[in-house]
């Protein structure tokens, strides 16, 4: 069995009703994709599938961590990732699919979710890759970098360049 087949669901044989599937995502999963935005992580993906005639609902819940460089101190961290994504599944032409509705052939027997799970993980990455790591032992932070940043914020002698000339100006309030 190929590794990515673990991220598939046998759709045709499922009875109508609610079904839950659990997928484990790790470094091997990320190696299957050509993007180096994420290369390692430990995540759990829960797929709640509500199968109904005509329209089914897919709810993906993602939680875990990915390896990333911290935007504050540049150390490698286990960045917490969480996300929830809902998708409707209908029968029709696959070309009509969009981010809210996935169309599949009525005769499809297996739904493959590997690519979709990868895209949802990428969408779950926060814009700023940092988190509250104060209580971790040992703390993953590069303290030398953090101290230098704090030192720069507290240093009044640092020049503001072009703004220095405006410091002495006096304005009258009307």
SSE order and pairing:
Layout: E1 8-10, E2 17-25, H1 27-31, E3 41-51, E4 55-69, E5 76-91, E6 101-104, E7 110-112, H2 114-124, H3 143-154
Parallel strand pairs: 5-6
Antiparallel strand pairs: 1-7, 2-3, 3-4, 4-5
Strand order of the largest sheet: 2-3-4-5-6
Runs in which pLDDT lies below 50 for 5 or more consecutive residues are none
Kindly state the mean pLDDT as a whole number?
85
Number of strand segments: 7
Number of discrete helical segments: 3
State the separation between the terminal residues, measured CA to CA. 79 Å
> What general form does the structure show?
elongated
Please provide a written account of the structure:
By secondary structure, this protein is an alpha+beta fold. The protein has one domain (3-156). It has three helices and seven strands. It has helices at 27-31, 114-124, 143-154; strands spanning 8-10, 17-25, 41-51, 55-69, 76-91, 101-104, 110-112. The strands form two sheets. It has a five-stranded mixed beta sheet. A two-stranded antiparallel ribbon has the order 1-7. A hairpin with a 6-residue loop joins strand 4 and strand 5.
